[in-house]
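Protocol step 4 of 6: structure prediction from sequence.
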Amino acid sequence: MLEITVKNNAICFGKHFSLNFERTLRIPDDGKTYPLPPGLGKFPVCKVDDYISTVPETWKEHGGVFIPMYQREALWIYFRGVDWRPNAVKIAVGKINAVSGKPWQQKLQADDQDYVICPAQPWLDGINAGEGYIRQFVAMPLGMGYTVEGQVTGKEEFGGIQIIVFDPKPGLFPEEPPPSKLLRGRGFSDFAPMACATFGGAEMGLAAGGKMKQEIYPDSYGINTWDETNFGRVYVHIVNSMMYREITGKEPPNTPVTAKTYSQYNLPWFDLYDEQKGSVAPSSILSQVKSVKEMDENQGFAPQQDDTSVDIPQAQIKKLKVDPDGVRDGNW
């Protein structure tokens, strides 16, 4: 089993892989497909066992960690793998696989790939809902039916995020020091928070937001590369700001600014040069999941969020390379 630790608000799986949850802009749910929004700093990650006397009873069985989010706040998951020793990573939201849309199972699936390979996949911003795009991870309370889990299963029993990381089989990859790594920029953390609605429960799950350009890359190594007996897994609970204060006695972070405000300041969005990598097919299950905006309309609620379209000039989109030192082999 890979040892799991929390260091500097990152979850570390063994010696070579870690991830953190990035605060970000909630992109408009207006039918457009947006480029990658920035990271605005890490969500704080707290261990359940450090607050065992104040966490809910059900958490004591699951263990793991928890993070605070505001209702309708977005996040993306930043994977920090190493090039010389990759990992296979499964992500589920409310025990619904974020790549395949199928119920959680630990075994890796090759025919209908239900995992990502890191560091080839540098981040994941949402569910695999369409060809060449994802729908952004957006926090919503359990019990309202908005979450991916609620829409796929008809119940909201688990919430949170479930993660399992597999090491490669012994002897396949060397153990050398890492090269320098590409960073997805941060550039906007000092503006006033936006207003957030507060109805709903204290525990949260992830729902679907607006469309974002992002590919989920096929496993170029093959499923037999991964040692399914050598893994680490963690249950990530999500709580609202009030519950976070009650459990920890600490103040949660301010909420992020809107995409509209961010773009008005001419700050960067991001895109990847990744045309050569291919893409896993979108999930037919996740493509049917309604967004938060669509769920509001179905429930007869007045608009609860600003989904005004944002025009992003090409000059404001920074192109990133998956491997900044790599050289592409063309047609000879």
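Step 5 (inspection) to follow. Confidence is low (pLDDT under 50) at residues 186-200, 324-332.
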